[in-house]
Amino acid sequence: MTNITLIGTGTIGLSFCQLHLSRSATDRITVCDPRADLDSFLSGSEQVSAALREGRVRIARSLEEACSLATDIVQEQGPENEAFKTRLWPRVEALVRPDCLLWSSTSGIPASVQGAGMASPGRLVVVHPFNPPSIMPLIEVVPSPATPEELVRRAVEYFEAVGHRPVVLRKETVGFVANRLAFVLLREAVHLVDEGVVSVEDVDAIVENSIGLRWSVKGPFASYHDGGGRGGLAAFLANIGGTIQSVWDDAGVVNFARDGHDGASWLDKVVKQTGDAYGPVRDESLEYRDRATRRVLEVVRDEKGKASRTE
Amino acid sequence: MTNITLIGTGTIGLSFCQLHLSRSATDRITVCDPRADLDSFLSGSEQVSAALREGRVRIARSLEEACSLATDIVQEQGPENEAFKTRLWPRVEALVRPDCLLWSSTSGIPASVQGAGMASPGRLVVVHPFNPPSIMPLIEVVPSPATPEELVRRAVEYFEAVGHRPVVLRKETVGFVANRLAFVLLREAVHLVDEGVVSVEDVDAIVENSIGLRWSVKGPFASYHDGGGRGGLAAFLANIGGTIQSVWDDAGVVNFARDGHDGASWLDKVVKQTGDAYGPVRDESLEYRDRATRRVLEVVRDEKGKASRTE
Lengths: 311, 311
What we know:
The structure is a homodimer of 311-residue chains. Chain A is α/β, with parallel strands linked by helices. The first copy, chain A, has helices at 11-23, 38-43, 46-54, 63-66, 82-95, 111-114, 149-161, 178-194, 200-217, 220-227, 232-251, 263-278, 283-309; strands spanning 3-7, 28-32, 57-60, 73-76, 101-104, 124-129, 138-143, 165-168. In chain A, strand 4, helix 5 and strand 5 (101-104) form a beta-alpha-beta unit. In chain A, helix 9 (200-217) crosses helix 13 and helix 10 (220-227) crosses helix 11 (232-251). The two termini of chain A are 45 Å apart. Chains A and B meet through strand 8, helix 8, helix 9, helix 10 and helix 11 of A and strand 8, helix 8, helix 9, helix 10 and helix 11 of B.
């Protein structure tokens, strides 16, 4: 049995509550939030509502009531506000056992910043979800440089056990990785709309019917590795590198040369890592890609059809 | 009955051949390619092989044999080479009727460049697929500035009729839109790998389990519109705009101010277009998103499970 305390229960907190409840029938969850409508908000979820009646979820009105020596995990998704978080953690630290896991679901304030006032700042680990966390599998696990590997491992194990897909980031990067990649793409999408090349709706249709569909099955490196055929990613980049560089130039994103890297250094690195990760491209790899893509497309079309019929 | 001539039959040409064959049982396709192994290459597809036996697909060894007054559509996917394409089109133009549709599947050479030597350069329209075109629905329809709207419409109608999703680009943009968005994201992914934040495999896992999954169901603007709740995209950008700008700054992509735009101009434009396209965010919109996302995830997990069991 694990005692989990959730601090801050907006939409993300509620969704995490559902995720934790689905993990085991014995875990107990304490939710702590000053909002006046907390009871009615939690009752908006049937699953949480039932768990409240069964006593598996309880409400705490103060931090002292929410965190105790019986608490195994404290997970925070309060206001995205540095002052709030830096004041919170030393108070939490004083109430829980030394082996209690301390996690923040922040979308941008690194553990090293949040934990500045703690006695053991390395205890704090960011576990950044993708909304809604009860459905989206990604958890970006971002330790601070002071975090022991053991605490990284325990966060990974927890989220693997609920069927999610934790990925550890080795450096505290602005925006972490998923949002960072999305926001860089968004910037270019906004630019193309602003220039009148396409509308907002066109961008969405383009993404849904190309890279969204593809990347739901295989991420960009794996896809481009396939795209190179027998020669894998190296062949792909050799074929299409000129177009890629023209896009980078035209979109105003910097050439790697600007950062003091020559192209060869990153090129070798990504080609080697891709080859190590996926091996040579085999027919089975393309067959998997195509089969999975067709099934995803079928499901999305079916749901789109249903949605348009009920409108 | 439509007579379609495909010039250049590598992987993309073969896949288009399959797509055109699936459109109707009466269309006839002529393939023209100098490759010595053309017969055996085409026979690699059961569908095309059967169509060859039935006479629905025939092989032409010269342009004169491939293009005639009976040809309704000429679609080119030859070498990505400006000289090849600019030499090709005046020759084709001289062989076909004035109302024959002329399409190029180029991934980067604009119609206005390819058609420079033609008597009527506006006839040429780019129909850029996403690989493999027999499966991936997106077709980027990119006219030159000289193209009559009627020819744009006919390309759109053709690909809608085969169940694909054509999107018209209103300006000839380097890399078109899907690849452009993908390559901008790739650049940032390469940067994060180069910096040691994540590995190639981590990037793929992150994308598959967050933005890939999400964008297979709803593109970025529609997703961020949902993410703003009742306030839609405007509320989302108001909440998270600071993080987005920090990412743009940190990733070295330019601020819009650099281009002589103040933030407000593009912001108003994308917020208005998003509101017009999707209306206010309703519960049904989130329910659709979550239901479709769960089903996509289920299908991908099922296929991943099968693939790992057969390895």
